[in-house]
Amino acid sequence: MEGTSRTLPYTIRFAGLLGSHSLGRNPKFMATAVDLGRELMRRRISLASGGGNQHGGGYGPTYGVEHTVSSNYYKYFEMNHAVEAFIILPGGVDTMEGLFTLISWASEGLHNRPIGLLNIDGYFNNLLKFLDDAVRQNFMASSQRKLFISSFFVDELLDKLEFAKAFPSPGAGYDEFANPERLDPELHL
């Protein structure tokens, strides 16, 4: 898979991965997860994952140090201290718990790592619609909604995460960075 990444001053070297312990019914989930692994290797990004009990907590061989923790909370806590960004894959209740824990911690200022949803085959569409509606109905601050990003594509999600790491404060968005010809010179000079 040929990536489309642009060179950024700060690149991610260690990412946390949250996702289901099962493969799901849709073969695109596994295929995209394999693509993600290949792209992480191409970019030399190491991975920390929560893992489940099925498939040894992942797919393929495991390298490096393994730590066992007593609860999901401690898993996110420990992972938060080690990684520079989080990648969320399709999953169930435990994955959603992790996602919302990370969003909550970010909104409370407990971490500033970018959070990215890999929206494989539109899996997160209903969740994103729900959260956008929560903002419209004033149940959620728009600042909380901006704490995470999503993409249907592996390389674009990783580019967005690297952009968010390099430029954590408000300013030009990823779309302007990725498509500089779309910038309005009157607004950006």
From TrEMBL:
InterPro entries: LOG_fam (IPR031100). One of its GO terms (biological process) is cytokinin biosynthetic process. Its EC number is 3.2.2.n1. Pfam families: Lysine_decarbox (PF03641). Keywords: Cytokinin biosynthesis. GO terms for molecular function: hydrolase activity, hydrolyzing N-glycosyl compounds. One of its GO terms (cellular component) is cytosol. Cytokinin-activating enzyme working in the direct activation pathway. Phosphoribohydrolase that converts inactive cytokinin nucleotides to the biologically active free-base forms. Belongs to the LOG family. This is cytokinin riboside 5'-monophosphate phosphoribohydrolase. It comes from Cuscuta australis. The lineage of its organism: Eukaryota, Viridiplantae, Streptophyta, Embryophyta, Tracheophyta.
